[in-house]
Design a protein that fits this description.
Two copies of one chain form a homodimer.
Chain A lengths: L42 H19 L2 E2 H8 L3 H13 L3 E6 L10 E5 L5 E6 L5 E7 L5 E8 L5 H18 L4 E8 L2 E2 L5 E3 L10 H9 L3 E5 H11 L7 E6 L3 E7 L2 E2 L31 H5 L1 H13 L4 H30 L3 E5 L2 H4 L2 H13 L2 H6 L1 E4 L6 H15 L3
Parallel strand pairs in A: 4-7, 7-10, 11-14, 14-15
Antiparallel strand pairs in A: 1-3, 2-3, 4-5, 5-6, 8-9, 11-12, 12-13
Helix pairs in contact in A: 1-2, 1-3, 2-3, 4-5, 6-13, 8-9, 9-11
Chain A binds a DNA duplex (30 and 30 nucleotides) through helix 1 and helix 3.
Chain lengths: ~400, ~400
DNA sequence: CATGTTTGTTAGTAAAGCGTACGAACATAT
DNA sequence: ATATGTTCGTACGCTTTACTAACAAACATG
């Protein structure tokens, strides 16, 4: 079931330049890691890049022949053919018959991404009280699920629970596992170490290397909001300059700029929950400040407020009116916070993810109105502001997108 | 004097894979353009990358031997030697004697970037009423200057004036010109076309290709604030997650994230002047909204306000007190606008550029205080907020940095 | 003076992509 | 039916790139 090796991953010190490892059917390339300008670039890296390029083209373009791929990528038919042979070998691509329609010349052999040849394991640690896991296919669709009660586990104990869940999910896979993606709350560095996640009781937990060692599989770890943003881009058809806002216990954001996730100087990009918004005070926040975005927008605060209104009586219409006012105010605050970000980044799209019944109505509308009223018209007229279509599985699917992106260079 | 060919630059269609063009001593590589995942990557591109890597290492590291470079880059001594030979050939690097000090082994031949082997032409179109030009060395220091009155030239006429100035500056160069960098206000796309610059009366002006054709030199064009941000990073020792705020006629910003400039989905990133800030009204802005950042922070508005206070009389202490209050309020507004951006991007550094007498005192202090009061402590405690050390030449030097980065891969 | 160290270069090898050329398989014109 | 042209996929040889191995030069030290 598991196919890839334990993956020391980073620090590949002395890479043997041989073509295929003895291990058999393992994918041969760890493609396109971020090309920091301070790293040497070998021809074999170029090959990995081109291999990803071919796969990516096929992933986006549907059924294509080798010649089509060559035309689209700019590579030669020869080279393309060679790369395709490798991908066929690794069971990432399959031939699906010949092209119909009568044209002159030899009929083209159509290729497609092998949707059933591999599966991906996704873990979502961002929900309160429960650890969620799933097996997903290469399209990011959930094939099987397994959850685990979190109880009040934290620290080491929680880490063990995550490993156990991952094993249970892995057992559900019906095809070789391409890798494990994890979306976790907190600050995560690029090596997959959770630097700080108060909700989980984690500080400096080397989640990626630990899981990878325990499972013998490649593992990719990222912040849940970043994962969700990637999901929105890969599976939700979102633009490549995207901000995803997650409303839950707190408020967090994931940013995709020019198609690649933003980490920030201390890997804490997207932590907007404790930004003060507006110049007119506001409630006191747990962090000590007054008027943090979370004091207006978090799920507990909103549901609490709505419940209070309902219990206070009054006509149903009156309650709805007051409830909408609360939601609109929350949306307005979000809009106020987003204004400068939209201006500074020239974002193309903002996506809200969280409890649909809270976000989808007056809140979203009010956010949109506020952003438009507070930024240059050029920006706001081209800005798309919407709620996600990916539903509650967004982080699981984002985890899958992490693996696709990290292992295959597909996004 | 000019050495490089007219530079069709983009769209290199059929690149002959021959090693050196007949033209003689021209640098052979146009290095490290942004590696979009949708572009094929050839071994020769890898070589360009490695060449840049060696040069960059030397640029940052001072005097190093070939063996040193090999150790730092991870490349072999052989490969490094080969790349260095090329760089020597192109007069980008020089040998500067042997290493002193008694160690065993053959003494090392020290190398250095050839500071005087090439020069760069920088143009700054962002100042009111004047076009500024300069010859700079590879360290970004101004060697010679030439300015031109702009008068009320705009559109075609202004474009011609820019070409004329560029020619005058080029005539001042005393070494082969590596390229021409231009910092211009407005929205600039990556091909160097000015999509929109109201101040200059330009819409869709293909500045890069026009200049390049006229001058027969490689040309790089960017927004002035982006250029300034790059200058701050390359010459000012700033971090690689940086936001530079330019206060002048309006307010603009340039962003450097992870060391590379951010363009935004419509290439309009950094346009924060017309973001509404605060929730308490404010003056009406030329753009029609109320409370735009520019209504608090622009140079005309601040100098006007200060002049008004001074003419209104009162004791000097009273005038100073009231002047400081104006500056503090402006700083506070900037801080309010920056809060969400700092939180969303986890910036490491914010640099202010503009009239020193306005920015350096209470304004800066107030901005810093406000940002700290309105963002998570983790962020603010690690955030550096300061005015630039590069002075009024920041855009010229940024233009030079553009050329260094675009032509040599050095930043 | 022998030995060890560091530097920089020479020679040979493996990988990657290109260009050319070729057979296979099809449509269409004669 | 045959000839011609087109498109697809592959085989062969070449160039570029960076690697390994080996070596001479130039120094310090016992």
């Amino acid at each position: 079931m598991t196919e890839a090796r334990p993956s020391t991953e980073t620090g590949e010190g002395r890479t043997p330049r041989a073509s295929a490892p003895g291990g058999g059917a393992a994918p041969r390339y760890a493609p396109g890691r971020a090309l920091r300008p301070s790293v040497k670039l070998l021809p074999e890296h170029a090959r990995g890049h081109n291999r990803s390029l071919v796969l990516q083209t096929l992933y986006r373009g549907g059924r294509l022949s080798r010649a089509d791929l060559a035309r689209r990528t700019g590579l030669t038919r020869v080279t393309t053919s060679d790369l395709v042979a490798e991908l066929l070998d690794d069971a990432l691509v399959v031939e699906v018959g010949q092209r119909e329609g009568s044209r002159p010349g030899k009929p083209a052999t159509l290729l497609e991404v092998n949707r059933s040849g591999h599966q991906i394991i996704g873990l979502d640690l961002s929900e309160r009280g429960v650890l969620r896991g799933a097996v997903l296919d290469l399209d990011g669709l959930v094939v099987a699920r397994a959850d685990a009660e979190r109880g009040d586990a934290a620290g080491e104990q929680l880490l063990a629970a995550v490993v156990t869940l991952a094993r249970r999910v892995a057992a559900l896979a019906t095809a070789p596992v391409l890798g494990v993606g994890v979306g976790t709350p907190g600050v995560v560095d690029p090596t997959g170490t959770v630097l700080s996640a108060p909700n989980l009781g984690w500080t400096g937990v080397a989640l990626q290397s630990h899981l990878s060692l325990e499972l013998g599989l490649p593992v990719v770890v990222a912040n849940d909001a970043n994962a969700a943003a990637l999901a929105e881009h890969t599976f939700g058809g979102a633009e490549s300059d995207l901000m995803l806002i997650r409303v839950g216990l707190g408020v967090g954001a994931g940013l995709l700029l020019g198609g690649s996730p933003l980490f920030g100087s201390r890997y804490a990009a997207g932590e907007i929950g404790h930004v003060v918004v507006g110049t007119d005070g506001g409630e006191r926040c747990a962090c000590g400040k007054r008027g943090c975005l979370e004091t207006w927008l978090s799920e507990p605060r909103l549901t609490g407020e709505l419940a209070r209104i309902r219990t206070e009586g009054g006509s149903p219409e009156e309650a709805e009116r007051r409830g909408d006012a609360v939601l609109r105010e929350a949306g307005k605050r979000l809009g106020i916070a987003l204004g400068p970000v939209v201006g500074a980044l020239n974002l193309a799209e903002i996506v809200l993810s969280g409890p649909e019944e809270l976000l989808a109505g007056p809140l979203l509308q009010s956010t949109a109105d506020t952003v438009r009223a507070r930024t240059m018209q050029t920006f706001s007229s081209e800005l798309v502001l919407r709620t996600t279509d990916l539903g509650p599985d967004i982080v699981l699917r984002g985890a899958a997108a992490l693996v696709l992106s990290g292992r295959l260079g597909v996004s």
